[in-house]
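Weekly sync, protein design subgroup
Attendees: M.S., D.O., the rotation student, P.L. (late)

Item 1: inverse folding check
M.S. brought a backbone from last month's batch and wanted to see whether the design step gives back something sensible before we order anything. D.O. pointed out we never logged the input encoding, so this time it goes straight into the notes. Structure tokens as presented (111 positions):
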């Protein structure tokens, strides 16, 4: 059985349903990546009811991905994602790829 995957999926679905119900109650829509950015439509993300559900949804989604994906690929993906977020990279003169500073030298990682 894959009960953990089902439990995480339910948390995501329940959180999305709650966000949808809050949007309907406020007569607004949740921002879409298909639409241009508009600060007015982002206000729903700051609603206290929505923020709690967003935290549940996103953390459950991260957990679901980490649980379902191959561990080595999860580690690689997470490492590369941190590199992009923090901007720690160094171009290799011999290869056409970037190496995060903290992978090359973990002592440089400061959080």
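Designed sequence read out in the meeting:
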């Amino acid at each position: 059985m894959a009960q953990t995957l089902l439990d995480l999926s339910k948390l995501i679905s329940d959180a999305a349903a709650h966000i949808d119900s809050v949007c309907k109650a406020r007569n607004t829509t949740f921002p879409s990546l298909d639409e241009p950015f508009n600060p007015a439509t982002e206000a729903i993300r700051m609603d206290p009811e929505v923020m709690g559900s967003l935290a549940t949804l996103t953390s459950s989604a991260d957990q679901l991905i980490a649980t379902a994906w191959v561990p080595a690929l999860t580690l690689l993906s997470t490492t590369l994602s941190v590199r992009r977020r923090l901007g720690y990279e160094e171009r290799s003169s011999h290869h056409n790829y970037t190496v995060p500073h903290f992978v090359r030298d973990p002592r440089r990682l400061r959080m």
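Discussion: The longest strand covers residues 90-91. The helical segments are 3-25, 48-68, 71-86, 101-104.
Action: P.L. to compare against the previous round before Friday.
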